[in-house]
Each structure stands twice: as C-alpha cells, then as structure tokens.
Amino acid sequence: MAADENLLTQSLLPDYGKYLSIYQGKGVLTLEDGKKYDCQFEAGQLSNGYILLLCDFLPPFPTCLRIPAAKFEGTTSEGLRISSEKSINEVNYLPATSKGHSPGVWGAFHLNEMLVQTSVCNQPHYLHFGITNFEFLGTERICQSDNYFCHFLPLNLQSRGGSTKLSIKPLDQYDKIMQRVQTLKGIDVSCEVIVEIPTDGSITEVTEVVNDLCYILSVARGTKIQWVYCDQKDRTGKPIWRKHCSRITKPYCPLKIIHPVASGGRETKGFIEQVYSVYVENRESYKLNNGTIDAYLDAKAEADYLEMRGVKFAVSMEILKKVFCKSMNIKGGSFKSLIENLCNSINLNVSKHEIDLFVKSRNSLIHGGEFFCIVATPKQREKFKVPSAHTEEYLFLVNFLDRVFLKLLGYNGPYIDWSVPGNPTRKEQV
Predict the structure, then answer these.
(1) How far is CA 348 from the centre of its chain?
(2) C-alpha neighbours within 13 Å on the C-beta side of residue 191
(3) How far apart are alpha carbons 46 and 20 in whole angstroms?
(4) Number of domains the chain is built from
(5) Are residue 128 and residue 103 in the same domain, yes or no?
(6) What spatial distance separates the first Cα and last Cα of the chain, rounded to whole Å?
C-alpha cells in the first residue's frame, strides 16, 4: 500500500493474530536522534498481550529506521490520544502491500506499554484489570441491564498491610472465550479484576495486589494467569484511560489443582482468601513472584516433550530448594535430606516412598534426560515401586509439586490429585 493511500480504510493488525483492541489514526514517531516522522497508524494489543504499532509514513519519508524509536504520539479518528515511551522495538512488517501503487515506507514496532486517553476529565474511581485464561464461577450476581444478571466473584484479601476488596467479573462471551482457549490451548482475556482506587489516588499498591492475585490464581489453575491491560473509569463506569502492557503470558494448561466450579465457585474463593496473606508473607523469601512459581508452571505447560517437562519439574524443585536453604540459613546437606526438611517445614505429609521416588526421578532426569521408569533395574523397580510408564511418573511429579506449592501457601483444603493418568481425583485435604 502506498503511503498516500488511506491506511485507515483497512485493518492490518489481524495479520499478526487475534486482537483485543485496535486503534487507527494519525501520529508522529520520534527517533532517539530527535527526528520526527508523520504517519498514519494502526495500533493494538493481541490476545496474548503483545502490543503492536504499524506505521504508514507520510512524505517526507524516512530514509531508514536503523536509529531506534524513542516515542510515539497519535490521535485516533474518535479523538483518543495514543502514546508510548517505553521500549519501542522494530519488528517485521507482515501486511502485504497493495499492487499498482507507488512504493511507500512502512514500519512495525513492538511496544512495551501503550496509553490510550479519552477526553473525559472525571474523577477516576475504579480500575479494571483484564486477565488471561482464568476460568471461574461467580458466587454472587448483579443486574447489569434489562434484567441481565452477571455472576461475579467478590474477594476480600487480607494481610498485615491491610485488606483489599475486589471482584472478578467475566467478559461478554466468557463461555465462548474459555471454550476457544481450552480447545486451542491458547491465550485470551477472559475476565476483569475490578477494584476501587484508594482515596489518596495511588494505584501502585492496588496494582501490586493484582500482581499477587495473578500468581495465586495461576497456582490454583495450574496455568499462567496474567493481566495485560488496566482501565481507569469514573464512578459511572465511563472510561478515562486504558494502559496496555506487554506482559509474559502462557498458553492454557488444563492441570488445575483447585476446581473452578466446585462448591459453586466457593472453593476457589476460599482458596484465594485463605492463602493470600501467606503468599504475601513468603513472597520475597521464596521468590514466589520472581521465578519460583513461574518455573513450576512452565513445567506443567504442554509445549515440550514429557521428558523435558519432567526436567523442568526437577529444576523447579532445585530453585525451591535453593531459596529454602537461604531462608533457613542451611549451608549443606544431601538433596534428599533437604527435600525432607522442606516438606517438614511446610507441614506436608509425604511418605518415604514418595521422597525416594522423587529423588530417583530427579536424578535420572537431570543427569540422563530420561524418566527413572525407563532406566530402572528390576531390583530398583521392586524397591522403589517405580511407575510403569513415563506418563505415570510425570503425573507423580505433578502431584508432588502441586502439594508442595499448596502447602507453601498455607493451604490445607480440597484439591485435585493428577497422579493417576486419565483419572484426576478430588481429594478433601492436602
């Protein structure tokens, strides 16, 4: 498409995938050397959280874009103001150019953040965080409009720092979104976390609470839950601005350990409210928001061969062992003894057989890249009750780490035991 043709007559962002939001208009891209280039643009956020800016530059054209971009500012045809000043990186331009027109100059950029502002100047009252892949059942309902009722999940999160009340509400077409996510093992925003802005107007602490909540939800569902945009709205629900954030998301994984609809959704509510304060207390010492939980979730993800996922579980335990030793000031000891000490410290009741099998499985995966059930001798099979197949051994590791993380968060209620292939079982107590 030539630069003098109206880019706004067509949508180009779908060439990159399914999108959440899309904006079109005219703007200015400023490079780090201070040069400015006018363009028609299309910007938006994909369902996986990725933020893109597509520029169709207007004359005089930039001769090259090797100098990094520093800032983008634009206005849509509806009067929305678009801006980005953080980490603007050039990526491949995918849309095909139209034939029969003079050559133009195009550019595509990945944005770390993008702010969308309206002309509304009302006092902000609510924050709406769009979160990915969270499956749930609301425990309460409110009337939206025209006798349409929406079920939502109210939460009261308490810690030593105080309490925060918030709610989780499904998006329109929530059922369709989750069916698609589960079927395609994809990524999409399924609901919003809604919280009132504190009276002092600060949103930093509220954002931290939502960050913590996402990690807790991730453990509950066995898959990465992440917020990718935040809306600021007034008391009537009218939008003031939206901040899109390109954050780490992961494809859906079905290995949940707290059932989404058990007890009418109250099991999920009870889990979140019970473990929140313990999560906050252990967050720094166990690096729960700095690699520990993410490594555990990555081991559950279905993108790799089973052996590699088993290796990731072993690595996840290594990370947990390291932070445990540091928090307890333990200088040495065998892997087996350290795992026993960890389980004792979090009050996880595990048998000698489970500890022995976990250690053997870990050693085999780390040192040979194979499950213990593949390399075990007949004598070892009898002594350690070795699983008959690698799927069974992998699910043993899943169940072992599930219980470790549930206890690490101070949870002692119902959960799903995945240790038997094809037969996940709801247990009443960890």
Answers:
(1) 27
(2) 21
(3) 5
(4) 3
(5) no
(6) 60
Residues 321 and 263 in one domain: no
Please provide residue 382's backbone torsions phi and psi, each rounded to the nearest 5 degrees: -75, -40
Structural domain includes residue 281:
no
Each residue's pLDDT tens digit, 250-271:
999 999 999 999 899 999 999 9
Q: Compute the Cα dihedral for 46, 38, 31, 66 and give only its sign.
A: positive
Quote the pLDDT of residue 3: 35
Half-sphere exposure of 123 (CA within 13 A, CB side): 8
Cis peptide upstream of residue 60 (ω within 30 degrees of 0): yes
The DSSP 8-state label assigned to residue 243 in this structure reads E
Q: Are 430 and 413 in contact (CB under 8 A)?
A: yes
Element (H, E) at 178: helix 174-184
CB 297 within 8 A of CB 222: yes
- Residue 2: the pLDDT is 31
| Mean pLDDT within 65-81 | 91
The number of helix segments (H) and strand segments (E) in the chain equals 10, 17
Regarding whether 259 and 163 lie in a shared domain, the answer is yes
User: Rounded mean pLDDT of 316-343?
Assistant: 92
Query: In 3D, which of 164, 266, 253, 267 has the Cα closest to residue 208?
Result: 164
Find, among 82, 58, 60, 63, the residue nearest to 71 by Cα.
Answer: 82
Local structure of residue 262 (DSSP, 8 states): G
Are residues 110 and 131 located together in one domain of the fold? no
Report the candidate in 281, 287, 288 with the shortest Cα–Cα distance to residue 158. Answer: 281
Residue 10 has pLDDT above 80, yes or no: no
Mean confidence (pLDDT) of the chain: 92
Beta pairing, strands 106-111 & 113-117: unpaired
The confidence band for 99, taking pLDDT boundaries of 50, 70 and 90, is very low
Q: Which domain holds residue 71?
A: 7-117
H or E segment to which residue 107 belongs: strand 106-111
pLDDT recorded at residue 66: 76
Q: What is the pLDDT of residues 35-47, one digit of tens each?
A: 999 999 999 999 9
**Antiparallel, parallel or unpaired: β 162-170 and 148-159:** antiparallel
Tokens of 105: 């100059």
Q: Quick count: other Cβ atoms within 10 Å of Cβ 117?
A: 17
Joined together, the tokens standing for residue 78 give 């509806």
Do 137 and 268 belong to one domain? yes
- Indicate if 129 and 247 belong to the same structural domain: yes
The amino acid occupying position 162 is G
What is the average per-residue pLDDT within 178-182?
97
Poorest-pLDDT segment among 138-147, 175-184, 280-289: 138-147
338 close to 325: Cβ distance less than 8 angstroms: yes
